[in-house]
Amino acid sequence: MTLTLNLSPELEQYLLQEATQHGLSVEALALQLLTNSLLLKQKQAEAVNLLQSWLDDEDDEEQQETGQYLIQALDDDRLSERKLFPAELKGITW
Predict the structure, then answer these.
(1) Which of 7, 19, 30, 42 has the least C-beta neighbours within 10 A?
(2) pTM score > 0.90 for this model?
(3) How far is the C-alpha of 48 from the C-alpha of 26, rounded, in Å?
């Protein structure tokens, strides 16, 4: 596919400088930037979909167990004796 872009002089100069700095042609750099941008968007969408699938999971008991395990692990793996999640503050601060 051939694509023709009308760039502002500032953008054209920036693109030329970046291409020269990376030892690439302007076309190669533009293609690389476009590809990286699209791949990043795709990865972000996949991450959002994965997180949403976790949120949509209706296994409340498993989520409660996982949450309790995480709280216990965070409290146990501290250098100080002060608990990060003290039981007396449950429902107040966490």
Answers:
(1) 42
(2) no
(3) 33
